[in-house]
Every structure is written in structure tokens, then in C-alpha cells.
UniProtKB/TrEMBL annotation:
Pathway note: Steroid biosynthesis; zymosterol biosynthesis; zymosterol from lanosterol: step 5/6; Steroid biosynthesis; estrogen biosynthesis
UniProt organism field: Denticeps clupeoides (denticle herring)
Enzyme Commission code(s) on record: 1.1.1.210, 1.1.1.270, 1.1.1.62
Keyword list, A-Z: Endoplasmic reticulum, Glycoprotein, Lipid biosynthesis, Lipid metabolism, Membrane, NAD, NADP, Oxidoreductase, Steroid biosynthesis, Transmembrane, Transmembrane helix
Protein name in UniProt: 3-keto-steroid reductase/17-beta-hydroxysteroid dehydrogenase 7
Length: 331
């Protein structure tokens, strides 16, 4: 049977590289590129068909940052397919990133330098926007739209006698300290990206608790530092090209500088080959690239503090209400 795979944010960067890798491995899959811009989506489809002319690549209009668009797209998916084997929740944004140069140089000469390069802890903030649904844009795009999509597609993902995988592109920038259950949209802070990725890690665990018995398994990955439109928004592309030799050097020490979208997609691709029952629901799977350019995937257990938060809070009714109290239109 042809597996059905849906990828959000599939028209560029890590999402597009993942599609390329999935088709190279199995040309029989039914691939659905879920993108907000249909011109960019069509360009991606043509590029994929150029290297895999026999493959089945469909397009789906989806703006994950819009509640209406998510409902419409989910309706369309339910009309087109009667099963969904993999759903990659990969679309993501980091608007108006600000690099704290002073903190960066301070970190460079501290014992925390490797961690700083791997996670950007303490050196990166963003300025968020309000979207047309009246929600914080980063939360709505990186987390909430994807969560709604999974909820809407439950009938396809939880088919009797079949297994499905939900795979989130999270980040090692996800940090407990950036996230608050009292402010899940991160209206108050300056690290909405970190907060949204941490929230996706939590939601993934919650999805496993709720749906494993129905054959739905959720995992999170970190692609490492990858040169894409997102990172070109932090520093211009010519600057990244200029410092590329330094980046290769740093890769010897961290392995998290995967740098190319192909390498960054490693953990996403690797997960598609695993038996989901054998995966650790409390792990984040990292794409890593060694100094010699070898790709591999490594699980990192979530922190004890996170495990505590999951077991003490996520299942309590008060927190459940917080998820519903998002926006007046959704109550
Ligand atoms: N690059 C990196 O170093 C890292 C990236 N990540 C994560 O990887 C994922 C992919 O990002 P990456 O490939 O780097 O960057 P890109 O900017 O290349 O890709 C992001 C993709 O998401 C899409 N997207 C953004 N907003 C929406 C929306 N509202 N609805 C639908 N699609 C949308 C973009 O579409 P469009 O072309 O229309 O903008 C694009 O296809 C993100 O979740 C990011 O957080 C995680 C860790 C590190
Ligand atoms: C000499 C150079 C290496 C200087 C570059 C400094 C910074 C611009 C970058 C250093 C660490 C980078 C990041 C780390 C983690 C990424 C994370 C996993 C993610 O999800 C998005 C991108 C990162 C935050 C990335 C961004 C650039 C750095 C801060």
C-alpha cells in the first residue's frame, strides 16, 4: 500500500530536503506538500518531480498561522485521503531575530561556549507580531496551527489496525525558562521561538499519552544549525558564506552544526524508518553531523524539570482550560 506523507513548510529548507530524501528512499509514497504560498509550492513540486519523475507529489494550500486555513486544509485532506501514515509538522518562523553581540562575545570566552553554539541560549531574542486571528504569530504558526491540524486529522491518524507518526521539527533552542503555562502564547517575553518549540515538545508527549493506544505516535526532533531562509534572517547569507570555514571548525566540537538542509533533515528521515513503538516519547531526536561530514541521529532525554512539568501539570484540568482560553473565537 502507498504510504501517505504530509509535510508542512515543504517548499524550502529542511522541509524540502526531507521530501527529496523521502522520495529518494521510496518513490511509491503519496507525498503532499502543505504550503501557504502556492507558487513556491509548485516550484518545489517541479523540483522534486525533476529528480523523481515517476513520483506522486500533491499540493495542499495551508497557512498554519490561520485557524480558518487549518480547518479548510484538514477538510480537504479528509476528502482526498482515507489514511495518513506520516505528518511532518515542520513549518516555522522566527520573526525579527535580534542577536545580542555583547552576550555572544561574553559566551565565546566562557565555559558555556559549546552550549551557546548548540542552543543559542542567552544570545537570541525575537519581536513577535499579532496575527489576523488576534494570536501571537510565533505561537500560532509554530505550535497552535499544527496542534489544530493534528486534532482535525485524528480520524485519519487513528485508523484501526494501522500506525501513524506525527513528527515535529522542534529545536535545541526550546527552553523551559522561556515557557510559562500562564502565558503559553509568550505575550510577555522576548523569546517566543524558544517558548513555542518548548511547547511543541510538551504537546508531543501529551499526544503520545492520549493516542498511543490508537496507533498514533508523536516525536520531536532538532535539525541542528542549518543554513536556510530562517538563519539568513538572523545574519545575511554573504556573512554566513564568509564565516563558513569557522563553522566547519566549530562542527568538530559540537556536531550540531549540520549546516545543509539535507543534513538537518537526517533525524526527520531516520524517524520514518523506525518502528514508532520503539521510540522514546521523552526524547528529542537530534540530527548531527561529525567533523568528517557523517550524518547520524541521537536521542537526548528531556530534562528532569520537563518530565516533572509533564507529569504534574499537563494532565490537570486547569491547564487544559488554558489551551482553550486562547482567543475569543475559539471558546
Ligand atoms: N534552520 C535552522 O537552523 C533550524 C530550523 N528549525 C526549524 O526547522 C523548521 C524549518 O525551517 P527552515 O527550513 O530552517 O526554514 P525555512 O524558512 O526555509 O522553512 C520554513 C518553512 O515554513 C513555511 N512556513 C512559515 N510560516 C508558515 C505558515 N504560516 N504556513 C505554512 N507554512 C509556513 C515556510 O514557507 P514560506 O516559504 O511561504 O515562508 C517554509 O516553507 C522550522 O520549524 C524551524 O523552526 C529548527 C532548528 C534549527
Ligand atoms: C562564528 C559564528 C558561528 C557566529 C554565529 C553566531 C550566531 C548567529 C549563531 C550561534 C548559534 C546559532 C544558533 C543556534 C541554535 C539554532 C536553533 C537550533 C534554531 O532552532 C534556530 C537557529 C539557532 C538559534 C541558531 C541561530 C544562529 C546562532 C545564534
Amino acid at each position: 500500500m502507498r504510504k501517505v506523507v504530509l509535510v508542512t513548510g515543504a517548499n524550502s529548507g529542511i522541509g524540502l530536503a526531507l521530501c527529496e530524501r523521502l522520495l529518494a528512499h521510496d518513490g511509491q509514497i503519496q507525498l503532499c506538500l502543505a504550503c501557504r504560498n502556492m507558487q513556491r509550492a509548485e516550484a518545489a513540486r517541479l523540483a522534486l518531480l525533476a529528480s523523481h519523475p515517476e513520483s506522486q507529489v500533491a499540493l495542499l494550500q495551508l497557512d498554519v498561522g490561520s485557524v480558518r486555513s487549518v480547518f479548510q486544509a484538514a477538510k480537504e485532506v479528509k476528502l482526498r485521503y482515507n489514511r495518513l501514515d506520516y505528518i511532518y509538522l515542520n513549518a516555522g518562523i522566527m520573526p525579527n531575530p535580534q542577536l545580542d553581540i555583547k552576550a555572544f562575545f561574553k559566551g565565546l570566552f566562557s565555559s558555556n561556549v559549546i552550549n551557546m553554539f548548540a542552543t543559542a541560549e542567552g544570545i537570541l531574542t525575537q519581536k513577535d507580531n499579532i496575527n489576523s486571528d488576534g494570536m501571537q504569530e510565533v505561537f500560532a504558526t509554530n505550535l497552535f496551527g499544527h496542534y489544530l491540524l493534528v486534532r482535525e486529522l485524528e480520524p485519519l491518524l487513528c485508523q484501526p489496525d494501522s500506525i501513524s507518526q506525527v513528527i515535529w521539527t522542534s529545536s535545541s533552542n526550546a527552553r523551559r525558562s522561556a515557557f510559562s503555562l500562564e502565558d503559553i502564547q509568550h505575550q510577555q517575553g522576548t523569546e517566543p521561538y524558544s517558548s513555542s518549540k518548548y511547547a511543541s515538545d510538551l504537546v508531543s508527549v501529551a499526544l503520545n499519552r492520549r493516542h498511543n493506544h490508537q496507533g498514533l505516535y508523536s516525536s520531536v526532533i532538532c535539525p541542528g544549525l542549518v543554513m536556510t531562509n530562517m538563519t539568513y534572517g538572523i545574519l545575511p547569507s554573504f556573512f554566513w558564506s564568509l564565516i563558513m570555514p569557522i563553522m566547519w571548525l566549530i562542527r568538530i566540537f559540537t556536531n550540531t552544526f549540520t549546516l545543509t538542509p539535507y543534513n538537518g533533515a537526517e533525524a526527520l528521515f531516520w524517524l520514518s524508518l523506525q518502528k514508532p513503538e520503539s521510540l522514546d516519547p521523552l526524547a528529542k531526536y537530534h540530527s548531527l553531523t561529525s567533523g568528517l561530514g557523517k550524518n547520524y541521529t541521537q536521542p537526548h532525554k528531556v530534562s528532569e524539570e520537563t518530565q516533572y512539568l509533564i507529569s504534574s501539570s499537563l494532565t490537570q484540568p486547569q491547564q487544559k482550560r488554558n489551551y482553550i482560553k486562547l482567543t475569543p473565537g475559539l471558546q
